Amino acid sequence: MPRPARFRPALSRRARLGATTVAALVAGTAVFGVGQATAEHSVPRTDKEIPNLTQVQDKIKAYYGDTVTADGEHYASPHSNYARQVRGIEAKARTYLTKVLARHDRAGKQSKQPKPAIVLDMDDTTLLTYNYELQVGFHYTEESQDKYLAHTDMDPVFGMNRLVNWAHAKGAEVFFLTGRKEAQRDWSVRNLKNVGYGVPLDRRHVYLKNKENPPPYLPCGATCTTVEYKSGTRKHIESLGYNVVANFGDQYSDLSGGAGDRTFKLPNPMYYLP
User: Fold this and answer.
1) DSSP label at residue 155
2) What's the pTM?
3) Contact by Cβ (8 Å): 132, 145
4) Which of 70, 72, 130, 139 has the most CB atoms at less than 10 Å from its CB?
5) Whole-angstrom Cα distance, residue 171 to residue 214?
């Protein structure tokens, strides 16, 4: 369920760690102690209600098990609490998909029922942005993201490449649906391939946001909100003869709007996308 409107200030594409640390609020991270900002005091009355930004960043680093290489690169640890939480979500998804895909297989491939499909967001659902976020100090810009993606592969979110490949082998069609812009397609596809996503990655299976030439199946065109864009694209996928049995995302806006039998929310305390 999306967070209340009071946690949705009119910000740029991403609500980053900032003055009131909106990212930590909406992500549900336990960083707020006694006397700090609450839903009742969305506008802090005193400085004591504002979480300390440095402390919030330190908690995020600890949650991801921040690991720094000799050349200063930051990576999340596979032994971190983040990784453990992700593995628990993946285990639930695998149990669910095992039953759903087996039921479809028993029904027979010659039946007229839609083919099962899974839809996955990209950033912090299938590809981990942690290293990029640390490089830019949690301050996203289109320019910095372009520079990073052009030359650097993000690691896969722990275990998600194995889950995706397994689901595909069991009969699920795999679709990636990201808010990244169309101009980033080649970099994104390269990254997915290089980190082990062994599924079709052509234009029919990878959807990026194209504001210059929005697809006709989106009535909102270039003005789509994230929810409209993602739910509208999932409905389009289902119109092609698929049933979206599972939808994966790290933002509530990835998962809202219908066109998906079950949703799986990946953790992300770093930023919030309304």
Assistant:
1) P
2) 0.85
3) yes
4) 130
5) 30
